[in-house]
Specification:
Strand 1 and strand 2 form a beta hairpin. By secondary structure, the chain is of the alpha/beta class. The protein has 2 domains: 131 residues, Nucleotidyltransferase, domain 5, CATH 3.30.420.40; 163 residues, ATPase, nucleotide binding domain (Nucleotidyltransferase, domain 5). The strands form 2 sheets. It has a 5-stranded mixed β-sheet, sandwiched between helices. Helix 5 packs parallel to helix 7. It contains 11 helices and 10 strands. The structure holds 5'-O-[(R)-(carboxyoxy)(hydroxy)phosphoryl]adenosine (KG4) and zinc ion. The site of 5'-O-[(R)-(carboxyoxy)(hydroxy)phosphoryl]adenosine has 18 residues, from helix 5 and helix 6.
Length: 334
């Protein structure tokens, strides 16, 4: 095979069908995403069976389009990287099996990617020059965890949520105030017009030792507050909820970065797209001597360039690949 390696990335862990083509370790040739949000919005959340069927319907077209947009032929692909977990088992099975089929058909290796590691590689795509070590906060709709990154591929989880993920809490509060799923971006937008100090929502586990998080109590506090105060301004509810979530995330992450003697914190995952969060994290980091970096918004929310980048690194640098007998793991961790 002539030329630099080319990775075909496939991501179907939840409700987005996504395909990317990556050259080398960080050059994105195409990065397509098809969101099923409209399909699930009437149910107020993702319906796994509906998601699986739609992935199966859309994936072949998306792969074709991603290859065409990359301006290459199928014969240039030298690796397939497909999300192996964590996520919903049906959707994962569709993408991972499709990836194995592509790898077999093209006689190239496949590497199964941990979606959470993928989020860390979003940082590498944006800042290939800012190598680890650093502390990483992965904050999305399904996960909230702090990971000490000694080097790419070398991780130690130092804290994670004991109940809901931060994005999940925002999505549930969004539902209570009439915002469609997923609600994070809209809460972030209307929070700009509200008062973050209007309602003193609790900061669960903010002062507890260690670096675990809890967001279920906050969600319940918002529910009770709304029952008692049905006329509360939604902008103030959004701003006060977001203020609580962001304060907890900021305190814990900056403290963990210092405790583990790192001077850089990277914040990745969908909730890292929040303007309010970016602002608070950056200013608190500055006060405490921690540099805080975020990928651009499009790399914070789910994308497949990050999955392809993680897979390319694992194969090209660590020599890894998976057998065709490998199966997805809905609870895959670090
Ligand atoms: O990383 P992601 O796209 O998917 C998962 O792996 O979960 O994260 C999705 C989460 C959702 O909970 C969504 O409400 C939240 O990220 N989100 C935001 C923003 N954009 C997406 N939360 C706050 N502010 C945003 N701008
Ligand atoms: Zn994600």
């Amino acid at each position: 095979m002539k030329g630099p390696p080319v990775t075909l990335g496939i991501e179907t862990s939840c409700d987005e069908t996504a395909v990317a083509v990556l050259q080398g370790e960080t050059k994105i040739l195409s990065d397509l995403i098809y969101s099923q949000a409209d399909l699930h919005s009437r149910y107020g959340g993702v319906v796994p069976e509906v998601a699986s069927r739609d992935h199966l319907r859309k994936l072949p077209y998306l792969v074709k389009d991603a290859i065409a947009e990359a301006g290459i032929g199928f014969e240039r692909i030298s690796l397939v990287a497909a999300t192996r977990g964590p996520g919903l088992i049906g959707p994962l099975l569709v993408g991972f099996s499709y990836g194995k089929g592509m790898a077999y058909g093209l006689s190239v290796p496949i590497v199964g990617v941990n979606h959470l590691e993928g989020h860390i590689f979003a940082h590498r795509l944006a800042h290939p020059e800012l190598d680890p070590p650093f502390m990483a906060l992965i904050v999305s709709g399904g996960h909230t965890c702090l990971v000490d990154v000694e080097g790419y591929g070398n991780y130690r989880v130092v804290g994670s949520t004991v109940d809901d993920a931060a994005g999940e809490a925002l999505d549930k509060v969004g539902k209570m105030i009439g915002i469609g799923y997923p609600a994070g971006a809209e809460i972030d937008r209307i929070a700009g017009k509200g008062d973050p100090e209007a309602i003193p929502f609790p900061r669960p586990m903010a002062d507890s030792p260690g670096f675990d998080f809890s967001f279920a109590g906050l969600k319940t506090a918002v529910l009770y507050h709304l029952r008692k105060n049905p006329r509360e301004r939604v902008e103030d509810v959004a701003a006060s909820t977001l203020a609580s979530v962001v304060e907890i995330l900021t305190l814990k992450s900056i403290e963990a970065t210092r405790r583990y003697h790192r001077n850089r914190l990277i914040v990745v995952g969908g909730v890292a797209a929040s303007a309010y969060l970016r602002d608070r994290m950056t200013s608190t980091g500055r006060e405490r001597g921690v540099e805080v970096d975020f990928p651009p918004i499009r790399f914070c929310t789910d994308n497949t360039a990050m999955i392809a980048a993680a897979g390319a690194f694992r194969h090209l640098r660590l020599g890894e690949s998976d057998p065709l007998s490998a199966v997805p793991d809905p609870r895959l961790g670090f």
